[in-house]
Amino acid sequence: MGRSPCCSKEGLNRGAWTAHEDKILREYITVHGEGRWRNLPKTAGLKRCGKSCRLRWLNYLRPDIKRGNITSDEEELIIRLHNLLGNRWSLIAGRLPGRTDNEIKNYWNTNLGKKVKDGHKTSSTFCRRPSNENSTRNPMPHLANPKPDSHLVRTKATKCTKVFFPHPSMLQLPNKSEEEEKVVADAVMSVQMELTTNNNGFLSFPDEEKQLSADMLTDFNVGDICFSDLLDSDFNNICNDQHLFSPCSDQPFHLVCSQELLNNCTQTNFADQNSASNNLHSFISFLDTTEETLGKS
DNA sequence: AACAGACTCAACCGCCTGGGG
DNA sequence: CCCCCAGGCGGTTGAGTCTGT
User: A4 CA to B13 C1', in Å?
Assistant: First the structure.
């Protein structure tokens, strides 16, 4: 296409895959399994580069790929996950069984991006971007006129892999009454009852299995949530105003939230992991609950 | 019917990351 | 610590298709 190839591809087929090529690739992977993509074309007898084979398999040939229209449930989940995660399509795709990152990315760029921009400008649920009414056809509307303060399209975000829950005695929140501080302390304690902290006060799960089972939906890992995105988002002001989040630039990140929110998180969503694991609605309702709680004044 | 513009989405790109030597 | 390589990622492209005139 427009760019020069990253490596020599002389003699290799490019462009759309033929049914014959698909058949060869599918049969090869069925026998030999995935991986070793670089050697695959030569071994399988395909005139394609390894990357192309990998992409074709992952985005089109894989047996668990779900073809067909995105359902309304999936659409809503994509929007909410995008609101949380930004353009991390692989992460979003990981929450939508059978959907690929490429498919979701395309769907967003051609449908949801525009829908969010045009239809939900006033909703706090969605990413708000300045509309560009003068723009002509643009297949990627969210990429047009990127703004410095755009907080969702950011490919190099920092993952937060640890959350620091201070001991209640460590909490010294400004302008808090004794009763309010007790509420916060109770909230922290309730989380610590569900989880455990290591010696440094960092959140950890008792073992790997429980860590995985505690994930939201099928495998929503707390480490996948980029808190820097949350802090850059509209949540930032809300949370700062209410002392829900108190980020420290050079210190462990303090996460403090209300008892109600914590109860919703731990009881409604984490406690019943088995039934929730395959239920999109539970995750959506969790996000609803979380946002509503955070949005309370 | 013919054409042009709009739209879709498979495929490609360069860059980044993690593992191994 | 550095280098190399394979794999993975998000951004981008353009051929094919759709739609309006």
Answer: 8
**The token pair that represents A270 in the structure block:** 């984490």
Q: Report, at the CATH architecture level, how domain A68-123 is classified.
A: Orthogonal Bundle (1.10)
Residue nearest to nucleotide C16 (CA to C1'): A16
The residue among A284, A288, A291 whose CA lies nearest residue A71 is A284
**Residue A54: nearest nucleotide (C-alpha to C1'):** C7
Question: Quick one: which of A236, A259, A254 has its CA closest to A181?
Answer: A259
Predicted model pTM: 0.53
Question: CA A243, C1' B17: Å apart?
Answer: 35
d(CA A173, CA A253): 15
Measured in angstroms, what separates residue A145's CA from nucleotide B18's C1'? 34
- Give the CA A16 to C1' B10 distance in Å: 7
The tens-digit pLDDT sequence of chain A (297 residues) is: 333 344 556 678 888 898 888 989 988 888 888 888 888 888 888 888 888 998 999 888 888 888 778 888 888 888 888 888 888 888 888 888 889 889 998 888 888 776 666 554 433 333 333 333 333 333 333 333 333 333 333 333 333 333 334 444 444 444 444 544 444 444 334 333 333 333 333 333 333 333 333 333 333 333 334 343 443 343 334 334 333 333 333 333 333 333 444 344 333 333 333 333 344 455 545 444 444 444 333
> Which part of chain A has CATH 1.10.10.60?
68-123
Q: Which nucleotide is nearest to A155 (CA to C1')?
A: C10
Spelled out in words, what is the top-level CATH class assigned to the domain A19-61? mainly alpha
- Are the CB atoms for A66 and A74 separated by under 8 Å? no
| Alpha carbons A110 and A78: distance in angstroms, whole number | 13
Strand B positions within 7 A of protein Cβ atoms? 5-17
Both tokens of A193, joined, read 């009852």
Which nt sits closest to A89, CA to C1'? C10
Find the Å distance, CA of residue A83 to C1' of nucleotide B21.
42
